[in-house]
Amino acid sequence: MDATMALAGLGVGIVVGLTGMGGGALMTPILVLFFGVPPVAAVSSDLAASAVMKPFGGWVHARRGTVNWALVGWLCAGSVPAAFLGVLLLRLLGDDAAVQNAIRTALAVALLLAAAGLVAKSWTARRDRTAVPAPLTVRPVPTVLLGVAGGLVVGLTSVGSGSLIIVALLVLYPMLRANDVVGTDLVQAIPLVTAAALGHALFGDLHLDVAAAVLVGSVPGVLIGARVSSRAPAGLVRSALVVVLLASALKLLDLPDTVVVAVVAAAVVAAIAAGVAARRRPPATEPEPVRVPAQPGPPPGPGHRPSGGSGVQETQAGPTA
Length: 321
Description:
Blueprint: H1 2-19, H2 23-35, H3 39-64, H4 69-92, H5 97-128, H6 140-157, H7 163-172, H8 178-202, H9 208-228, H10 234-252, H11 257-280, H12 311-317
């Protein structure tokens, strides 16, 4: 099981390196659905693995200058204490079956939100190509509230440190470049997932063997994904991630397999159709600059009165003999 779990961690690490998101959204349901790990143990083990994995990506972005440290500070001001609160709320929900069912439902809702956010991100990415860079004004109150919401979700489900917060950042700060959003989110996620992991460890939920097996594959996976990210089409990666998120969410909601297969098949067809449409669509071009025709003669004197007709045509024709 350890080798298979490490292989799953490798795949998830590659996705995180490619997109900056999807760690908790993918690894936790994989541990629950395919390896039979209890949801609470899966959440805590995935958080511990993310606390070690995410600094690799954050370090790369910090060296390249694609981290907004002001945003990181305000996000952490809300997310770190909220992560501890999320762990406490998880313990107060009940014991045994009640806790497990609550986690599965919350995790499924978080995955659906993450999938919807990724679809929205694909639309905003199109505008990013022609957007004019503008100075960023950090808004502390909504940024802290975003951190609080993300911290609560991460403490409860381990999902949100990447998938949900990165989408919310795009909504709050549409002027941020895509790589700045990813870098900022990865760095702020380090203290966030660390706080949540420590909270789970204090209650004895952490399974070190599961976390270690995931780390064996996820750390090299992040490094591989970071190298491939410059070559892989972002749209293809987002489409694959949306499909996996949908499938995981529907399975966690205990829907029939036929419904899961039908929805996933529809998502795959929609992704293929969107990719074909994007290939056929002509690339966005800058508007043609307005060309002012040259005026061969000197400017007219103060007493000159323009004659009838189009001024452009007269300017192009030049003075008559």
